[in-house]
Amino acid sequence: ELVSISRPGSPSLERFANDLFAARCVLELRWQQPALNADLTKKHIDSTVGNAHDSSYLTDEITLINEVLHELLGCEEIGVRVTTLSAPMCPRFHIDAVVCRMLVTIGGPGTDWIANDDVDMSILANRDSEEIPIKLGREVKQFNSNSMSLLKGGVWQNGFDGVVHRSPHQKDQRLLLSFDPIFTS
Prior knowledge:
Elements: E1 2-5, H1 11-22, E2 28-34, H2 38-49, H3 56-73, E3 77-85, E4 100-106, E5 112-114, H4 121-125, E6 141-142, E7 148-152, E8 164-166, E9 174-182
Antiparallel strand pairs: 1-7, 2-3, 3-9, 4-7, 4-9, 5-6, 5-8
Helix pairs in contact: 2-3
């Protein structure tokens, strides 16, 4: 259902994120690119962040994750999203309507998720319910900051519902990197 690789944080990348937060810089970037085109990644980041911050650390992180997804999944294209957040982007538990998605949180709490065997699907299906869709006695888990977390989505394959997750509800700011592998065949 998912793979999450914990790794030590990059002090330079965390400093970059903290500089964005201190400057109240709001990022909401989305683009699609060839998986192995680092120049296009640099162009997108530099055109938005500019010289006010050393964006090379962010460019390097995005390039690394694109390469990982290309090697793991064989995708030639990737949809990239870079967002600064100070409130939950997705406050409700849900399943993404994608094949899979890689999430990386920098400088704040990671994404909340529920193991598939622990999900109460009747609560999840009730869009009017504010209740957490979890079976009694089970717990919501949270990805570590800086971890590379690959979640299967709702269109992964027949018989798999996708990973149930949401944005963390802590008030901390965070820089969220989201990657959607795009399969052409």
